[in-house]
Amino acid sequence: MAREEPGDRDDDGDGRRTDRYRHLIEHVQDAVVEFDLVDGEPVVSSVNRAFVDVFGYDADEIRGEPLNEWVVPEWKLDEARALDANTSSGEVNYQEVTRETATGLREFLYRGIPYEGGTGSGGFAVYTDLTEISRNERRLKVLNRILRHNLRNNANVVAGHTTRLLAETDGPDAETTESAATVERAAHELERLAEEAGHIHRVLRRPTDEDADVDVASLARAVADDHRTRSPGAAIEVAVEEGETVRGDDRLRYAIDSLVDNAIEHNPSASPRVRIRLDGPADEADATAAEWAVLHVEDDGPPIPPNERDVIRDGESITPTHHGSGLGLWLTELTVEAFGGELAFDASDDLGGNDVSIRLRRR
Question: Is-above-0.70 flag for pTM?
Answer without folding.
Answer: no
